[in-house]
Each structure stands twice: as C-alpha cells, then as structure tokens.
Write a structure and sequence with these properties.
alpha+beta; 6-stranded mixed beta sheet; 3 helices; globular; disordered C terminus
Length: 150
C-alpha cells in the first residue's frame, strides 16, 4: 500500500534529496553531512565500515570530492514507504556517474537507498542510510529470503 503523504512533506523530502546530491557533488562536505542527524549513519558495501556522526560524514564527503574528474549523484524514483509527523522511511535509486578529465561519462554504480528520516525543527534529516548495490549478491534479508536461499 502506498501511504498517504501530504504534498508539503513530499516536497520537503524531495528538496532535501536534491540538495544533498548537489552538495556532495560540489564538494560542500559539511553542508552534505548536515543533511544527516548529528549521530547519522551511512552504510554501504562500497566502503569497509559504516560512517557515523557529523565529523565522519564530513570527512567521507571530503574524500569523495578528492577523486579526479567530476562525479554526479543521480537520485531517482523516490518512494516514501511510511511516514508520520516525525519519521519516514524512504527508498530511492541512486546512480553514481563519473566523468574523467577529457573522457566520457560512465555509470560507476547503480544502487538502492533505504533511508530512515526524522523530522527535527521542521527539517527532514537522515538518521540512517543503507545502500544496496545492484552488482552485489543479495543477502538473506526478510524481503528476499526464500526457502531456496535461506
């Protein structure tokens, strides 16, 4: 079932995601980290350990920007799965596209994000982000566990 989400809530969530992509791509690491709660968490199989808290999130975004060329985060198909006045669960697709100096753009990764958002002071912030890569083998989670792969 698709939850009934107000237009204002959808707009605020979409704006946060759009800003977040531009912030990390423009090297604005501190502002990108501020889209997470102070104890926010980023988990991705692309990186060895979860990144937790504003300081670590800022350092992560700074390292990301040091890569040669230009990188774009292209977030699509934002789906608010559940929402109330103070919490939301959001899933979306995220493509990481890189363009090396003088070279063609290429798709580095295709992923699915699952974010736990909280509303603090009228702003939606990410409490926890879990990234799943399309090229990774599925893990045994309740959503994809069957008798064949259990």
């Amino acid at each position: 079932m698709v939850p009934d989400v107000s237009s204002e809530t959808l707009l605020r969530i979409h704006r946060m995601y759009g800003a977040q992509s531009h912030l990390i791509d423009e090297g604005r690491a501190g502002e990108w980290a501020a889209t997470f709660t102070p104890d926010g968490e980023f988990r991705s199989p692309s990186y060895p350990e979860p990144v937790t808290g504003t300081r670590e999130l800022t350092a992560f975004a700074e390292r990301f920007r040091e890569q040669a060329g230009r990188t774009r985060h292209v977030l699509t198909n934002v789906h608010v799965e559940s929402v109330d006045d103070h919490r939301a669960t959001v899933r979306a697709y995220l493509q990481i596209v890189s363009t090396p100096p003088g070279g063609p753009s290429r798709l580095d990764r295709m992923t699915t994000l699952t974010d736990e958002l909280v509303r603090i002071g009228g702003r939606w912030l990410i409490r926890r982000r879990t990234v799943r890569r399309d090229d990774a083998l599925p893990s045994a989670t309740p959503e994809n566990t069957t008798e064949e792969n259990a």
